[in-house]
UniProtKB/TrEMBL annotation, chains A, B:
Signal peptide: none annotated. This is Chaperonin-like RBCX protein 1, chloroplastic. Keywords: Carbon dioxide fixation, Chaperone, Photosynthesis. The keyword Hydrolase does not apply. The lineage of its organism: Eukaryota, Viridiplantae, Streptophyta, Embryophyta, Tracheophyta.
Length: 172, 172
């Protein structure tokens, strides 16, 4: 019971698969500077990020979060259904086993067209992902955690390397 | 020349693969409420998000962004090298072809231990990902795009469905 209450691994969304796959069209260099936020600023102080074509890294990250929010919404709705209507819960789980959640919009579009019950469920998932994105998700917390993560990871990687090489030196 | 100047598809990081893969240990229900930001607030008004165990959706999203920033940093450094030192550019590209970028920290740790030249390159990538995360990445822009995306996607999905069913109705 418990194992079927979790989303299968194959349902996890990928990061930026569709857009970055077209990288081949965009060589690293030469390429235009990022123009998403400051199109009129010719001498941008930001680092040049190649390979995103017309889009921006922010758009790719937002697209990825959009798929993640659909994944979270499916988990929220499934947990709600499981808690008060176990029979109704089986149906979306069966649908999940047949459809990938990599592309959240595609998943919702397919669910819309499955049956009238599935349509209502898709509407609910869409409503939940919107509410989750706009009200529940802690954006500042994510930013804080990412800042912390990059600092701690860099320190840890360097410390590990230093300890490793010092150890070798001591053994000599 | 151009095709080898792009990162191979296999180098794209996956979303939340390592942590969500342990979902089986966390049934949807019963489970504790999210406690990342408001541990003392017993009656949280937020929706219950199951399946993240001790972590939070924000931590998973931050971890994913962390890997994405490493990916972006590699692209930035590779583009810089290609523009002024094409010979030095070949080396990291060869390393990239042998190592996955799915886990940014693991990638940097391996690069650290490859050779002294690779070590310097890894240090530079780590510095760039930190600077990119803290200075260049437009967090508010990403949030704005994600808000826009969820609203527009939901509207589009519903409009498409209504148009589709109206069309069928007209044809009858």
């Amino acid at each position: 019971m418990e194992s079927c209450a979790t989303l299968p691994l194959s349902q996890l969304p990928y990061v930026y698969p569709s857009t970055l796959s077209s990288n081949k069209a965009y060589p690293f260099w030469p390429c235009k500077r990022r123009s998403s936020s400051q199109p009129t600023r010719l001498h941008c102080s930001k680092m040049f990020v190649p390979g995103f074509g017309e889009a921006s890294p922010e758009a790719k990250a937002a697209q990825n979060l959009h798929n993640f929010f659909t994944f979270v919404a499916v988990k929220i709705v499934a947990a709600q259904l499981e808690s008060y209507n176990h029979e109704a819960y089986e149906e979306p789980m069966e649908f999940l086993s047949r459809h990938s959640l990599n592309d959240g919009d595609k998943f919702c579009a397919s669910m819309f067209r499955e049956s009238s019950r599935h349509k209502n469920l898709a509407l609910r998932i869409m409503e939940v992902r919107s509410a989750y994105c706009k009200n529940d998700f802690e954006w500042d917390n994510m930013k804080r955690l990412a800042f912390k993560m990059v600092t701690e990871s860099n320190t840890r990687l360097m410390t590990e390397y230093v300890l490793e090489t010092s150890h070798v030196g001591t053994e000599k």
